[in-house]
Amino acid sequence: MIGTSLQGLRIVLVEPSHPGNIGAAARAMKVMGLRHLVLINPRFFPDPEATALASGAEDILDTARVCADLDTALQGCHKVYGTSARDRRIQWPSSNAREAAGEILADLGNGDCALLFGRERTGLTNAELDRCQVLVHIPTAEEYHSLNLGQAVQVLAYELHIAARTTPPQPAAPPEEQPAPVEDMEGFYGHLQHVLRRSGFLQDLRATRMMRRLRRLFDRARPSRNEVNILRGILTEIERWAAKVDRKDQDSL
After folding, report:
1. Rounded to the nearest 10 degrees, how much is the dihedral formed by the CA atoms of 173, 175, 180, 184?
2. 81 class by beta-carbon count within 10 Å (0-12 exposed, 13-18 middle, 19+ buried)
3. Could you tell me which residues are beta bridge partners of residue 86?
4. Which of 166, 192, 224 is the last residue of a domain?
5. Nearest by Cα to 227 from 174, 194, 188
6. What GO biological process term is on the record, naming one (predicted)?
7. From residue 40, how far is each of 22, 160, 182, 186, 241 by CA, in Å?
8. How far is 201 from 165, CA to CA, in rounded Å?
């Protein structure tokens, strides 16, 4: 039952450099009922050290997906959570590990979700966190808060396991109301940025910050696929109107 409630969750490790951490993550996942491991550009994989640290969870390693980029790893997900231990100047919506586990369980009712873990030394970049709807942190002692990658996966896997045991199944939204997958949203954001740049609204010095704010706005709205198509249709009409204006201006010269 627990495995069923968590089956739509992908544990995504971004560019892990130590194969032992991959094995430890696989072991932590299997113990807590998680099955889907995704690796983005692992430095060493497959590797004997990963197999040794998996210690009985070799099946998780055998079925792990290896992806070249974040787009491929997230395809088909409708919500993405990103882990971070650092204080960021840029503010993302955030939850602690226990809160996030409950939120993920609720979100899984509407389709696949992803939980991202960053590089051992530097974590996730700001650009990668821009792809996340929620930032997840693990509360630790003030004087020392260093967790390695395998330990971080273990803590989140445990919280997810407990949430799956104690959270009643969440009803899914009707298909037409389910949030659009991340690839649809990324296509929309690229289209929106293009139109805003062409209009002159986005200037280079503030483009990144403004697009981040717009992402947060639409993340809160959680538009459906049909609603995203409507928004892109509006942008397309704006582009057509702008092209007509440009032609008239050229003709008047």
Report:
1. 170
2. buried
3. none
4. 166
5. 188
6. tRNA nucleoside ribose methylation
7. 11, 22, 17, 19, 41
8. 49
Domain count, the chain: 2
Report pLDDT digits (tens) over 162-210: 999 998 877 788 888 999 999 999 999 999 999 999 999 998 778 988 9
Lookup result for tokens 């395998």: 150
Q: pLDDT tier at 220 (50, 70, 90 boundaries)?
A: very high
CA dihedral 85, 88, 92, 97 (to 10 degrees): 10
Residues 6+ apart with CB under 8 A from 53: 19, 20, 21, 22, 23, 24, 26, 27, 150
Pairing of strands 36-40, 9-14: parallel
Instruction: Tell me the pLDDT tens digit for each residue of 210-219.
Output: 999 999 999 9
Domain interval for residue 114: 2-166
Whether residue 149 is found in the same domain as residue 32:
yes
